Amino acid sequence: MEFQMGKNVLLRVSPMKRVMRFGKRIKFSPRYIYPFEILERVGPVAYRLVLPPNLFGGHSVFYVSMLKRYHEDSDYIIKWNSIVLNKYLQYEEKPLVVLDCDVRKFRTKEIKSMKVQWKHLLVEEATWETEKDM
Questions:
Q1: Measured between alpha carbons, how far is 134 from 131 in angstroms, rounded to an integer?
Q2: Measured by CB atoms within 10 angstroms of the end CB, which terminus of the chain is less buried, N or C?
Q3: How far apart are CA 6 and CA 98, in angstroms?
Q4: Dist. CA 37–CA 4, nearest whole Å
């Protein structure tokens, strides 16, 4: 994949490893932060981006696998100033609101679960979590 200089791209970030939702979080993990302009190409698979100084300090070169073409549809974009990223481009997801509760009854046990809306995600992307995981 190649990008042209001066075009905007999205930068991929992911939740921290310890945030797992029934072990399926990997499937939904790619999230992107707001578009950044490509300054130059640094080798066959790396690009330097124009980043705000408070975002990463000085690290501004990223591999093509971390970038995505920018389109006007913003459903999958997280505003970069609303999250705190570490040096590995990871952020911690925190529950915002419990939307619903449910008890699933099996033969020998009951499992309590809650529908949770996560910070930085829409209500439609709420997930069911077990009470012990919360």
A1: 5
A2: N
A3: 42
A4: 10
Residue 25 — pLDDT band, cuts 50, 70, 90?
very low
Indicate whether 33 and 82 sit together in one domain: yes
pLDDT at 65: 85
Examine the pLDDT at 108 and tell me if it is beyond 80. Answer: yes
Give the range of the structural domain holding residue 41, as residue numbers without chain letter. Answer: 1-92
42 shares its domain with 67: yes
The single residue listed with the structure tokens 């809650």 is 114
R_g of the chain computed on alpha carbons: 18
**What phi and psi, each to the nearest 5 degrees, are found at residue 26?**
-60, -35
Same domain as 37, residue 4: yes
Tokens 């012990």 sit on residue:
132
d(CA 71, CA 95): 28
pLDDT of residue 43 exceeding 60: yes
Higher pLDDT, 18 or 107: 107
The structural domain count of the chain equals 2
Q: Do 48 and 35 fall within a single domain? A: yes
